[in-house]
Write a structure and sequence with these properties.
This protein is α+β, with helices and mostly antiparallel strands. Helix content is 27%, strand content 22%. The protein has a 7-stranded antiparallel β-sheet with strand order 6-13-14-15-11-12-7. Helix 1 packs antiparallel against helix 3, helix 2 packs parallel to helix 3 and helix 8 crosses helix 10. It starts with a strand and ends in a 15-residue tail after the last helix.
């Protein structure tokens, strides 16, 4: 398998060389990188799980993930095992998100969906794995037809239908459920992002990440203490991740405004600078303007190509909706106060903290006075 590796001073334009293989070119400069060979596990036995026959696409509520902690912001990967049945978690937001994804793909094209030359088989495997899982787990929502592999994919409530002999697998995969990123191991042992569909990122643009190795993706994005605390463990984890050991993790942030796809508080999507997170547009805001945003992420190594498929599901609520829950106001306030300067910058604290903190403190005191929670309650309910 071949893939394109992006370098800082090179503008990548896919083209074919005289042997018919893809290269990345800039004038006479080309890069053609051979990925590390993966021994395909065609006989991999998937763990059994039960179909959810009673799933209600209109009334099933989103999982109540609340991954903020009393103790602030711990520096670790925060991973835990993922049950096979819960790889993709659907709820009553699915149809709304589907329409947003379709609109984003139609309006922004390869600014939200890309497959670099050489990653086509990984993208196809990701699409067939995802669709086969969804059809088994949610049989009243998805249907697939096989012709040696998954060929036809249909979303039953909407009538959307794709033929993988005709339609682009990465585009289809990104419409089926979560945002996706495909990482492929290079000959240097590093994992590079080679394909993806990122339709509801907040402030995460595929054009900033595609072709980069794992560490550079995080370093350019200024992930808090990545170099000092996370790079070694992340590289080791990606190398050792087993096909039968998928994992999941959660994160969270707060934002101004009800923007799911792109945060308007950061200006025009095409003008965004991923390193400075600018432009940043503060406003005179009320508590009703603040939203809680949380991601559930999963990582799976796929058996045939050995790529790592990264899924990102975004949960999105007005903050006024979640602070009625026992202990939540105090826990959010403690978490925000636990951020250091770098985390505060990354999470846009300056845009909402002065509004939120007094309000959260007051609600916490009222919950204690009403004996909804104890003043000393610091129970760890992560990630709920």
């Amino acid at each position: 398998m071949w893939f394109v590796r992006r370098q800082r001073q090179i503008s990548i334009v896919p083209a074919r060389n005289s042997e018919g293989k893809y290269v990345a070119v800039r004038g006479t400069h080309s890069i053609l990188v051979k990925s590390k060979k993966w021994p395909a596990l065609a006989d991999f036995k998937y763990p059994e799980f039960e179909p959810w026959h009673g799933f209600d696409i209109l009334n099933t509520k989103p999982a109540p993930y609340r991954p903020f902690r009393w103790e602030g912001y711990p520096i670790n990967m925060g991973i835990r095992p993922m049950p096979w049945a819960s790889w993709i978690e659907l709820d009553n937001k699915y149809l709304e998100y589907l329409e947003i994804r379709k609109a984003r793909v139609a309006s922004r094209g390869d600014k939200v969906v890309r497959t670099l030359p050489g990653a086509e088989q990984a993208a196809l495997e990701a699409c067939t794995e995802l669709s086969a899982y969804l059809a088994k787990r949610y049989p009243n929502v998805f249907r697939v037809e096989h012709a040696g592999r998954v060929k036809i994919i249909e979303i039953l409530p909407t009538g959307d239908r794709w033929d993988l002999d005709v339609d682009d697998p990465m585009t289809v995969a990104g419409l089926l459920a979560d945002d996706l990123a495909i990482m492929i191991e290079g000959p240097d042992g590093l994992y590079y992002m080679q394909a993806g569909s990122i339709c509801v990122p907040g402030i995460w643009r595929i054009v900033d990440k595609i072709g980069l190795p794992l560490a550079e993706i995080h370093l350019r994005g200024r992930v808090y203490k990545y170099k000092e605390k996370l790079e070694f463990s992340m590289d080791r984890f990606f190398k050792k991740l087993a096909v039968d050991k998928p994992i999941q993790r959660n994160n969270y942030s707060f934002q101004l405004g009800p923007d799911l796809a792109w945060l308007s508080s950061h200006g025009n999507e095409d003008d965004f600078d991923q390193e400075t997170k600018k432009p940043r547009q503060g406003t005179d805001s009320a508590i009703s303007d603040i939203y809680f945003r949380s991601e559930r992420q999963t990582l799976r190594k796929l058996p045939l190509t050995g790529c790592i498929l990264f899924t990102i599901r975004t949960y999105f609520h007005p903050v006024t909706e979640i602070i009625t829950e026992p202990g939540v106001p105090g826990r959010i306030a403690a978490a925000i106060r636990g951020w250091d300067e770098a985390v505060a910058l990354r999470k846009d604290k300056e845009l909402y903290a002065d509004i939120m903190l007094p309000w959260l403190d007051d609600l916490h005191e009222k919950q204690v006075a009403a004996e909804i929670i104890r003043a000393d309650d610091r129970a760890n309910r992560y990630p709920y």
